[in-house]
Amino acid sequence: ELKVEQNPLFLSMQEGKNYTIYCNYSTTSDRLYWYRQDPGKSLESLFVLLSNGAVKQEGRLMASLDTKARLSTLHITAAVHDLSATYFCAVDMEYGNKLVFGAGTILRVKS
Amino acid sequence: KAGVTQTPRYLIKTRGQQVTLSCSPISGHRSVSWYQQTPGQGLQFLFEYFSETQRNKGNFPGRFSGRQFSNSRSEMNVSTLELGDSALYLCASSEGDTNQPQHFGDGTRLSIL
User: What are B30-54's pLDDT values in tens digits?
Assistant: First the structure.
């Protein structure tokens, strides 16, 4: 059974600081997704990582995938308050759209 | 392009009743997936429909069922509701290619009294 673990589960950071969220998964997969969820809102797609070594960047967020280590990272650079949200990683290992989500990381950026 | 639309947004039911939730995918998307989100269990996959056929199924009891129509709209039905079914039910659509991200609707908040 595929398991996806995120850490930390809660992250409080100061504006301007850098930090990394980690996503480990238990079985082989080369399809990993990062989503953002604001309170009371739905999930917004951030990144799709489809191969070993894939790196995607959007603004202050950068995601990478290491399929051999079964690890993805979401790096936050110079955090700003607007990045406060819950971030989920999800892995899709079967044919079809069947995502297994991590528990989510609640990010709070303090000014 | 309109996003994924879920109706109703909020629903209150009592134990033992049944409920039907609706999802209209993004135009052109043929895959519709359903997820349950609760504080305790997080986001869990219910099932996926593609071209009117169930393509994947999660580990939920048979009380949870779904279907997809020829226009790709999907419905989810839960029978004999239990208190533990209280959750946010999210629908997501994609073109069908598994390398594309799923786009989520705003969800239906179901409360069981």
Answer: 999 999 999 999 999 999 999 999 9
